[in-house]
Amino acid sequence: MAAIVSVEVLLANLPPKVKRTDAVQSFECQETPIVRIRDADGAVGTGYSYTIGTGGSSVVRLLDDHLAPMLIGRDADDIEKLWRELFFRVHATTVGALTSIALAAIDTALWDLRARKAALPLHRLAGGAKDGIETYYTEGGWLHLTESQLVDEALRAQEAGFGGTKIKVGRPHVAEDVERLSAVRDAVGPGWDVMTDANQGFTLAEAIRRARCFEGLDVAWFEEPIHADDVDAHRRLSASTTVPIAVGESLYSLSQFKDYLQSGACSIVQVDVGRIGGITPWLKVAHMAEAYNVPVCPHFLMEIHVALCCAVPNSRWLEYIPQLDMVTASGMRMQGGRAIPSDAPGLGIDWDWDKLRAHQVHRTEHH
């Protein structure tokens, strides 16, 4: 046993690399809570999570005041036990985004520490199912972009080797969405995937209407069409269309995914390690989806999801949105349109602490 002797809590604010807009919001800032856990052997594990512009300071207070102090003196290898004890320590604030984001920063640090001490990369420690994962491009599909910009971005992504592109939908009238999607489909041809994402912007009736119009464009999926709380509405939508329905980035517990899968309310799971509470519950969701023959296509955080996608057999796509390259010494490795997980022990993220300090807005250390 090597007891935890210190826990460092950081917050770094990373600006978006491009303007990002969707049907309900804009991506203001990637607030990045970071946790560094050191054990008595001197080994250090680093984990992180994120917000898109609000709540970061609240996550840090939750870590500093309630969660990080509980880790001191504990065995860092008891990951499952620690996750459950931390979860029930703040049970009154679960299930919810702030608690899950805080837990994710700790849990990913514990997995990084375990993998480093085992001298194994995360994708092998957590399963070792694949040596690469196909990627799709999101940065060229934001809602504010013009039709010609969408086409240009899609063609560049296709030429670069990506397997598809995501287009945000939610224009005031369905005809506008169809026109934009049709322009992209005509440009890239039938053998390339086009994903759509509504960011929970529609009612059930409007989602059914738009899905019907999207069917002829052979879209790969219709993501977050309705508010994520409404499982039955997603079930009714799924039953009404041949377009695959994707959910997950706004779900925060294993049980929520269970309800969707049992109800047949989705056909693609987009579980997000930063919002589900870390690697421990992420793997449970992925394996549960496998039992339902449903693919996993995680949301955001490509730098850690590349390893998790390669750990499980039912992963299908990795979303390409680079963000950590402004605070890392090297980025995620790509071969054509495939992402390749790092062979370095741990999460495989090559942090540049000098660069990170330029964006740091909070630091505390617990002993």
From TrEMBL:
CDD domains: MR_like (cd03316)
Database matches in InterPro entries: Enolase-like_C_sf, Enolase-like_N, Enolase_C-like, Mandelate_racemase_C, Mandelate_racemase_N_dom, RHMD-like
Superkingdom assignment: Bacteria
PANTHER family the UniProt entry points to: ENOLASE SUPERFAMILY, MANDELATE RACEMASE, MITOCHONDRIAL ENOLASE SUPERFAMILY MEMBER 1
Record keyword tRNA-binding present: no
Ranges of residues in domain Mandelate racemase/muconate lactonizing enzyme C-terminal: 147-244
SUPFAM superfamilies given in the database record: Enolase C-terminal domain-like, Enolase N-terminal domain-like
Gene Ontology molecular functions: hydro-lyase activity; magnesium ion binding
Keyword Metal-binding among record annotations: yes
Cofactor(s) it depends on: Mg(2+)
Keywords: Magnesium, Metal-binding
SMART domains assigned: MR_MLE (SM00922)
Biological processes, Gene Ontology terms: carbohydrate catabolic process
Protein name as it appears in the record: Mandelate racemase
